[in-house]
Design brief:
183 residues, two-stranded antiparallel sheet, 72% helix, mainly alpha
Length: 183
């Protein structure tokens, strides 16, 4: 496949994802309903729920991807297929990240999003320091996310649930929002 065909395919696919999501999102907003679904894998289940924050982040994600492809239109002359594969894998991970209703799934997807981001910065960065930048990105984000992991373990030990909705209900009932003291 020629580079022009890959560029056209990438742009068409990203615009299609953007239009599909925006049409579906407007339908959800117009119907005043929420998007919620559950995936079952044997005894394990993953729940996804579209909150207001998730809705905004998803709109930003699907709007940025065509812009990212257009920005790289004439700048990348090598490995364009790899670039598109990394870009679309990052988009898929981010879409599921913003849809998740579980703190543990959120953490796993957040860490998973680092891999294509690391490869994008390391392989397609503009600077000669791109390898150092990708290593620093990986190191600092991984070290910072260890704090998130500690907080997740603490939440699980205290409240016994990893569901965002349940945690929100428990926290708003147990804590006074003005003083953050237990009521």
């Amino acid at each position: 496949m020629s580079i022009n065909n890959m560029r056209n395919f990438g742009l068409l696919a990203s615009v299609l994802v953007c239009l599909l999501y925006l049409l579906h999102g407007l339908q959800i907003i117009g119907a005043n309903t929420k998007l919620a679904y559950l995936l079952q894998f044997g005894n394990t289940s993953l729940s996804f729920n579209l909150s207001n924050t998730g809705q905004l982040l998803l709109v930003l994600t699907v709007l940025v991807w065509p812009i990212a492809i257009l920005a790289s239109w004439n700048n990348l002359l090598h490995s364009y297929g790899t670039y598109l594969a990394l870009l679309f894998s990052l988009e898929a991970v981010l879409i599921y990240l913003f849809l998740t209703d579980n703190v543990i799934t959120f953490y796993i997807l957040f860490e998973l999003s680092l891999l294509p981001l690391y490869l994008l910065v390391g392989q397609f960065g503009a600077s000669t320091e791109r390898l150092r930048a990708s290593k620093l990105l990986w190191t600092y984000t991984l070290l910072g996310s260890l704090c998130l992991l500690v907080a997740i373990v603490w939440l699980l030990s205290i409240f016994g649930t990893a569901n965002f909705t349940t945690l929100n209900l428990v926290l708003t009932q147990q804590y006074d929002t003005n003083t953050l003291n237990i009521v």
